[in-house]
Design goal:
Layout (H helix, E strand, L loop, with lengths): L1 E8 L5 H9 L8 E6 L6 H6 L5 E5 L10 H13 L4 E5 L6 H8 L8 E3 L3 E4 L7 H4 L2 H9 L2 E4 L7 H14 L5 E3 L31 H6 L8 E8 L2 E8 L7 H10 L4 E8 L2 E8 L2 E7 L6 E7 L5 H9 L8
Parallel strand pairs: 1-4, 1-5, 1-6, 2-3, 2-4, 6-7, 7-8
Antiparallel strand pairs: 9-10, 10-14, 11-12, 11-14, 12-13
């Protein structure tokens, strides 16, 4: 049987970094797979996880549990049939609801094939002081569904953050384990813990598709060298760009673009003269990392609580191309 873990967490909580750390601890001789879903349409996490050694399946563009779970079922069935992994890690979008996914994984049809282990929820405790996040039903239900809470980004906590975390734990369930972590560095043994949290969760209402008139007004831009894709739902908007493998960006300019963009979230894997650059910004948190692998393309996505001026951001991004710009 394939052992399965659901790795949840709101936008910017550090799910992908945690996945990379866990994959680096994979036991010798085991085959692992990752089923990853992103709110945006261009799929950043797949590029970040491509060199992890795991079998990877991406479901971009919203919530994998929508449409009666069909996107997730297709991806799950393909992984089970083609890869036959010993362990499967499922990373839903930070705006996704866990109930439908857990219901599907526990369905009778999968019982001969799947063994559901502990569900982990990544939490940036600073978000407990953000009313907009705390009021989001997906944020609350991700925490409620978890067997283990990973309180991430401990290096950035202050006294107010720690107090908010302690109060939340006292009000929620003092007995449920909370694991403090920095940069998603947690022990792989956590994955083998059993499910212990069986509290009932409400079924969330999903709103991932914009009205037809709005979609027409925001039709994606297509180009021979790059394309743009948009998405909206759950009170958030996203815009992403994919550039071909021959497009290289100015390093300093790209970093400034990502740092100063008037949006909440920026995530990308981009080709620069020095090689490959990954950027990850959540609010004022800004992390960058250079990588040696050569990606098949460059892709970057921004997410915001309201519709941003995508065309202006796009124009400034296109000016940063160094080679054969079209």
């Amino acid at each position: 049987m394939t052992r399965v873990n659901l790795i949840t967490g709101f936008l910017g909580s550090g799910k992908t970094t945690t996945l990379l750390h866990l994959l680096a601890q994979k036991p010798e001789g085991e085959k692992w797979a990752v089923l990853v879903n992103e709110f945006g349409e261009v799929g950043i996490d797949g590029a970040l996880l491509a060199e992890s050694g795991a079998v990877l399946k991406e479901i971009p563009g919203g919530c994998m549990c929508c449409v009666n779970g069909l996107p997730m079922q297709v991806g799950l069935n393909m992984l089970l049939k083609q890869a036959r992994p010993d362990r499967l890690l499922i990373e839903p979008t930070g705006l996704g609801h866990p109930k439908q996914i857990l219901d599907l994984l526990g369905a009778e049809v999968y019982q001969p094939w799947l063994s559901l282990d502990a569900t982990l929820c990544l939490l940036d405790p600073r978000q407990l002081n953000d009313a907009r996040v705390v009021e989001n039903e997906n944020f609350r239900d991700q925490l409620a569904a978890a067997d283990i809470i990973v309180a991430n980004k401990e290096d950035r906590w202050d006294e107010a953050t720690l107090a908010a975390l302690q109060l939340w734990q006292l009000q929620d369930d003092p007995a449920r384990p909370i694991i403090p972590a920095r940069f998603g560095e947690i022990a792989v043994e956590l994955l083998s813990r059993p499910r212990t949290n069986l509290r009932a969760l409400p079924r969330a209402a999903h709103h991932h598709t914009a009205p037809a008139s709005r979609l027409a007004a925001l039709a994606p831009v297509q180009n021979t060298r790059w394309r743009r894709s948009l998405n909206q739902g759950q009170g958030y908007f996203s815009c992403g760009w994919v550039f071909d493998a021959d497009t290289v960006f100015d390093t300093v300019g790209l970093l400034e673009w990502a740092r100063l963009a008037p949006v909440s979230r920026v995530k990308g894997v981009m080709r620069i003269p020095e090689g490959l650059l990954s950027v990850n910004r959540q609010g004022e948190d800004f992390n960058i990392e250079t990588r040696q692998a050569t990606p098949p393309d460059s892709r970057i996505e921004i997410i915001h609580e309201e519709e941003a001026d995508w065309n202006r951001l796009q124009a400034s991004l296109l000016k940063l191309r160094l080679t054969n710009a079209v």
